[in-house]
Design goal:
- It is built from 44 helices and 38 strands.
- The protein is an alpha/beta fold and 1214 residues long.
- A 9-stranded mixed β-sheet has the order 1-8-18-19-17-20-21-22-23. Strands 30-29-31-32-36-35-37-38 form an 8-stranded mixed β-sheet, sandwiched between helices. A 7-stranded mixed β-sheet has the order 3-2-4-5-7-6-12, with helices on both faces.
- Bound molecules: thiamine diphosphate and iron/sulfur cluster (3 copies).
- The site of one iron/sulfur cluster has 15 residues, from helix 26.
Length: 1214
């Protein structure tokens, strides 16, 4: 029997503890950490097992736990936490259920869709009253788009499961309330969910006070724990759980749990009181803050409470207040009433979630039902959705609204809603941060080390002074090379401001190209400090180079201006582009938070700690950077009077750009998207094709320039370019002469038409090139050396637009299905935001060149969905007739099924069109022969991708010439109804090439079940798996494609098991086309395989090996071709094709395209840090597992040989 282990009054144990723990509070040491670390700090110590699946922004929790476990950290029970990564959140919750049922204190970390996949098991855990704590970094559940930022849609979608829900408003609370949850779940046998706002709290760093292991131990109700363990599922005390229940008993069972939920809030409060005695930090189920006689009270939870508290502290005389919700479930009306001032006339409930079509959001409904009959008015509003800022100025607007006689109900704050007019207007920023706080803003670039340096600064300052610190970091959507803005605060009082800096004392601009591009001085306070990294080091040069508007703002705000050429210093000391240490040294010198000498010593200490593992020379380079940084800063005493009257530069003549680019993309590129009103965002998050090319980042240091003299016109450079920005063109002499800039070409060779007089050109887009050097390195004749970007933009920038937009393609000169021929076809995937040199993208680009333009893509979540579909950057584009790639992402886990749905839909709709065409043909005499012939031709080519496309063009042309006007409307309304219908369904005329694209995490793990089902479907579809052998998008966790010994997250001591052979599994169906390719290593084989896959009328699975930053390739991603060739040569990667078309012919269906492996695999593996690092950290594991890996690769080759032989025998029989 499940004993009633809870009681409504304070339990004996808690009372005892309260007595013994009075006034033990000592001032503990401050430790800077983010919310994820704080949650892991507690959950690690309080759990036996962690069963997880990575999802942003919760991923780090699992990673930290795994790392600490590998390092041997013990929990309070004296064991290492056992961390298991599952194949999905569904799997994680199932395993957790099993672990909890059999007596292990088990935790998990998740977010968003991940949490939703756990719902069925959450019901089970609650129904069976099993203790567990889920730690959730709350995040949007994607609707019209995916967002990794915070709202409460995920937790609210699970509030009905029977879990208890705790909400934390800052990092300290994450730590404290996490402990309350772990204690209370043991005590109450109710599962708990501890949540905090994703990114805002999960990733914000602030200094907090820790709780010792002894205290944790002291608080545990050991009897309750013993009871739980002794009553777990065990053959020693056998019972049956998870029963099937009939109508007679189910309802009563459900109601039998009431009293446990009723007593839970008091039990939680007991623990909160206990914690207060120990630490001085008092929490309540609901906490009140504000005027004791408040008339208007806001109710909120999560990080949104901080700006409200700050506002109340700034205006203590206003009769307003705040109720902070901590224990959201079980909701306690009693505790709520206890906190609400009796003077309250109106309550405003702020929800961080939108529930379409409801009478109010979840928190509002709870509060409204609590206040029924009290006469207190309740108003609801929404804020902060998808991480939208919520500031004191907005708080003021909310209070003002609540003071109106007729307040706006169901309002929104933080956006401009010009459609339903629900948004409240708000004023200028109100400075509410604690007095004496120094606020700093740093503008850096992704990968330059600025963010890391700032995290370091917080550590140095908070650990070595009495100051408190906070850091929050804003990143652009690009995988690398995007803008990063660091927001730092330091001060004598605790900082909880959960919004970006609005009044900075210190602003540092690490890249001069940002000047004029972003509103850099928006946050700069009057009289504050501004530091620019620039090569203009004299006043004259600087004055001439800065835009007038920028100078005006500097002068009007009376900024103290400093300059430094940090880029030059970084180059000089051998740190390349990494200016972080130099700019950090400057910060310490100018900000004065610490004495300069002391800060330099601490900085150097931190450098040693951080870089020593990379070698003493790297440490020394950073030391030099710091010393030179300090010496080289120059103050600019500008003429304030003159600068304040600087002539404002004329606005650039507006280019004629598409609506989306002008109205959506441009503001977003300027980081001004928050100002976009609702009316401009009405299309459900859809993007037109080819928007990414408008950004023109121009951020590469150097780009290639074509030296045609030795070029052999192989087009390999174009094939390997991950970004589609170096391409071959065929031009007539006249077209060459008409180029806007000097254009060097050579006579084209190998043309089908020997008489054609065409010139060959390799053109680079210097604005879009990332400088990854893949083209430079692959070129067999060294024709693409790199030169400074600026120069190349000037010399060849305009020619790119000329050749890509105006010069006609000459596509009939080469076969499309060859390396060379394919590259003359426009890539319909270009300028994506992938990392410079990404190994995934060339395969996608090649698919579009071989099968475009009628391509449909179902894309799994992963890197490919981030660089492929982040609003407003669409790298998928269209041909010059406007036809192009139609792309969509459903979820991570269901991509195969999503693609199947697309195929079924297209097939069905096209077959309807076929019926209509056949109907027309039944009365063919009623129509012109030319028209009937076209329809017959269409029927013949119905299933052929390229031929049906050609006919579709002819049919459309015929309609335009005979049946419709320029707008596409019918000229003659009495036209045969079926003929009209063909026009209405013209988008179904061409056959579509269906692609299902995703990474190995999707295909090998979370989506494997669906993928397997689709493999058995017999539909005509193609699957492309981008095999980076890790979850690249979430930071490199192991998948089942990760090879043995590979160091990834969750395999810190090298993966113990071998790589799953997905291709081999698929081949067992016999009717699935399967290939393993690597376009960089063997472009010919890749083209051949993709061609065969496309032609196979059933399911095709093409797995493409993709180098990735996560591999830590020693020579960098720019040498992908050389590196992957070595992978193939040494037998790490095997290339093959399995073509079911060859059954029954004299060709072997299975072809191994790579040669017998040569020795050297061990040497090859050492060129990737994921293998090499194992040798450093776990030498014994390395010895064992690396040998096994080499054997795995050998075995795999052997298995392919026997497979080949098997089919060979079959052939002979035939
Ligand atoms: C249900 C769910 N769980 C987790 C995630 C987080 N997530 C997004 S992409 C990804 C890993 C993708 O790895 P992979 O499929 O190998 O693609 P890659 O990024 O390597 O291209 C994860 C774990 C998610 N989006 N949805
Ligand atoms: S350097 Fe890289 S991005 Fe630039 S053109 Fe060459 S391959 Fe493409
Ligand atoms: S790889 Fe070199 S040789 Fe080949 S087409 Fe490009 S530039 Fe010419
Ligand atoms: S797959 Fe790797 S290299 Fe490509 S974008 Fe993702 S992390 Fe970067």
């Amino acid at each position: 029997m499940l004993k009633d282990f809870t009681s409504i009054s304070k339990s004996v144990e808690v009372k005892k503890l309260l007595r013994f723990s009075t006034n033990t509070k000592k001032k503990s040491k401050k430790v800077p950490m983010d919310g994820n670390t704080a949650a892991t700090y507690v959950s690690y110590r309080m759990s036996d097992l962690a069963i997880i699946y990575p999802i942003t922004p919760a991923t780090n929790m699992g990673e930290y736990a795994d790392k600490w476990s590998a390092e041997g950290l013990k929990n309070i029970f004296g064991q290492e936490l056992d961390v298991t990564e599952m194949q999905s959140e569904g799997g994680a919750s199932g395993a957790l259920h099993g672990a909890a049922t059999s007596g292990a204190l088990t935790t998990t970390y998740t977010s968003s869709q991940g949490l939703l996949l756990m719902i069925p098991n959450m019901y089970k855990l609650a129904g069976e009253r099993l203790p567990t704590v889920f730690h959730v970094a709350s995040r949007v559940v994607g609707g019209q788009g995916l967002s990794i930022f915070c709202d409460h849609s995920d937790v609210m979608a699970t509030r009905q499961t029977g879990f208890a829900f705790m909400c934390c408003a800052n990092t300290q609370e994450v730590l404290d309330l996490a402990l309350i949850c772990h204690l209370a779940t043991i005590k109450t046998s109710i599962p708990f969910l501890n949540f905090f706002d994703g990114f805002r709290i999960s990733h914000e760093i602030s200094d907090i006070e820790l709780i010792s292991d002894e205290t944790m131990k002291k608080f545990v109700d050991w009897d309750a724990l013993k009871y739980y363990k002794q009553n777990s599922l065990n053959p020693e005390h056998p019972e049956v759980r998870g029963t099937v229940q009939s109508t007679e008993v189910y309802f009563q069972h459900l109601e039998a749990t009431n009293k446990f939920y009723d007593s839970c809030p008091d039990q939680v409060q007991d623990y909160m009181d206990l914690l207060a005695k120990e630490t001085g930090r008092q929490y309540h189920v609901f906490d009140y803050h504000g005027h004791p006689e408040a008339e208007q009270v806001i109710v909120a939870m999560g990080s949104g409470v901080s700006p409200v508290e700050e506002y109340l502290d700034k205006f203590p005389n206003k009769k307003i207040g705040l109720i902070k919700v901590r224990l959201f479930r079980p909701w306690s009306k009693k505790h709520f009433h206890d906190q609400l001032p009796s003077t309250c006339k109106r309550v405003v409930v702020l929800d961080r979630v939108k529930e379409h079509g409801s009478s109010g959001e979840p928190l509002f409904l709870d509060v409204a039902s609590t206040l029924i009959g009290t006469g207190i008015d309740v108003v609801g509003g929404r804020y902060g959705i998808s991480g939208k800022e919520f500031t004191p100025a907005m708080v003021e607007a909310v209070y003002k609204n609540s003071q109106r006689k007729e307040p706006r109900r169901g309002f929104t704050i933080g956006i401009i809603d010009d459609m339903t007019r629900l948004s409240l207007d708000y004023g200028e920023p109100i400075d509410c941060v604690p007095e004496g706080t120094t606020q700093c803003v740093f503008w850096g670039i992704g990968g330059d080390g600025t963010v890391g340096a700032n995290k370091n600064a917080i550590k140095i300052i908070t650990e070595n002074t009495d100051l408190h610190g906070q850091g929050y970091f804003v990143y652009s959507a690009h995988k690398s090379g995007g803008v990063t803005v660091s927001h730092l605060r330091f001060g004598p009082k605790k900082i909880t401001s959960s919004y970006l800096v609005t009044d900075s004392n210190y602003t540092a601009v690490h890249y001069k190209s940002y000047i004029g591009k972003y509103d850099l001085l928006k946050t700069a306070k009057y009289g504050s400090t501004l530091v620019l990294n620039t090569d203009k080091l004299t006043l004259k040069e600087l004055e001439e180079s800065l835009p007038g508007s920028f100078k005006q703002e500097i002068a009007k705000k009376n900024l103290k201006l400093y300059v430094i050429d940090a880029s030059e210093i970084a180059q000089k000391v051998g740190l390349g582009e990494r200016v972080n240490m130099i700019m950090q040294a400057v910060f310490f010198k100018l900000s004065g938070v610490l004495p300069v000498k002391e800060s330099m010593d601490l900085l150097k200490k931190a450098i040693k700690k951080e870089y020593l593992r990379k070698g003493m020379d790297i440490v020394q380079k950073n030391y030099n950077a710091v010393d030179l940084g300090i010496e080289s800063i120059i103050e600019m005493n500008y003429d304030q009077e003159r600068w304040s009257k600087s002539e404002i530069e004329k606005a650039e003549k507006k280019k004629d750009e598409p609506w989306f680019i002008e109205n959506i993309m441009r503001p977003l590129l300027k980081l001004e998207g928050d100002k976009l009103p609702v009316s401009k965002l009405m299309n459900g998050g859809r993007m037109p094709p080819g928007t990414s090319k408008y950004e023109k980042r121009g951020f590469a240091i150097s780009v290639p320039k074509w030296h045609p003299e030795n070029c052999i016109q192989c087009n390999l450079c174009s094939l390997v370019c991950p970004h589609g920005v170096v391409r071959p063109f065929l031009l007539t002499k006249e077209e060459v002469e008409n180029a806007p800039q000097k254009m060097q070409t050579i006579k084209a060779t190998g043309l089908k038409d020997k008489k054609a007089e065409l010139e060959f050109l390799i053109q680079v887009s210097p604005y879009d090139c990332t400088g990854c050097t893949n083209c430079t390195n692959v070129c067999p004749r060294d024709c693409l050396p790199q030169f400074p970007t600026k120069r190349e933009i000037e010399e060849q920038g305009k020619n790119w637009e000329y050749v890509t937009e105006t010069v006609p393609f000459k596509l009939d000169q080469f076969k499309r299905n060859t390396v060379k021929g394919s590259q003359f076809h426009q890539p319909l995937f270009e300028v994506s935001g992938a990392c410079a040199g990404c190994g995934e993208t060339p395969a996608i680009k090649l698919v579009t060149q071989l099968f475009g333009p009628e391509i449909m893509v179902a894309n799994a979540s992963g890197c490919s969905s981030v660089y492929g579909g982040t609003y407003p950057w669409n790298p998928y584009t269209n041909d010059r007739d406007g036809i192009g790639v139609a792309w969509s992402n459903s979820l991570f886990e269901d991509n195969a099924e999503f693609g199947l749905g697309m195929v079924k839909s297209m097939k069905h709709q096209r077959s309807k069109l076929k019926l209509i065409v056949n109907d027309v043909l039944k009365n063919e005499n009623e129509h012109k022969k030319e028209f009937i012939d076209l329809l017959k031709e269409w029927l013949e080519q119905y299933s052929d991708l390229h031929k049906s496309f050609k006919v579709s063009k002819k049919i459309k042309k015929y309609y335009k010439e005979h049946f419709v006007d320029l707008n596409g409307d019918f000229i003659n309304n009495s036209l045969d109804c079926n003929v009209k219908q063909i026009w209405d369904r013209k988008d179904m005329l061409a056959q579509k090439s269906q692609w299902i694209i995703g990474g190995d995490g999707w295909a090998y793990d979370i989506g494997y079940g669906g993928l397997d089902h689709i493999l058995a479907s017999e539909e005509n579809l193609n699957i492309l798996v981008l095999d980076t052998e890790v979850y690249s998008n979430t930071g490199g966790q192991a998948s089942k494609s990760t090879p043995r010994s590979g160091v990834a997250q969750f395999t810190a001591n090298g993966k113990a098991t071998g790589k799953k052979d997905l291709g081999l599994i698929a081949m067992t169906y016999g009717n699935v086309y399967v290939a393993y390719i690597c376009p960089q290593a063997n472009p010919n084989q890749a083209v051949k395989a993709l061609k065969e896959a496309g032609e196979w009328p059933g399911v095709s699975l093409v797995i493409s090996y993709a180098p990735c930053i996560a591999h830590g390739i020693k020579n960098g991603l720019g040498r992908a071709a050389e590196h992957t060739k070595e992978a193939v040569r040494t037998g790490y990667v095997h290339l093959y094709r399995f073509n079911p078309r060859n059954f029954g012919t004299n060709k072997n269906p299975f072809t191994i395209d790579s040669k017998k492996p040569k020795p050297g695999i061990e040497k090859f593996l050492m060129k990737q840090n994921r293998f090499a690092s194992l040798k450093r950290s776990f030498p014994e594991e390395f010895e064992k597992k690396q040998k096994q890996l080499a054997q795995d690769c050998k075995n795999r080759y052997e298995s392919y040989l026997s497979f080949k032989e098997m089919y060979g025998k079959d052939l002979k029989k035939k």
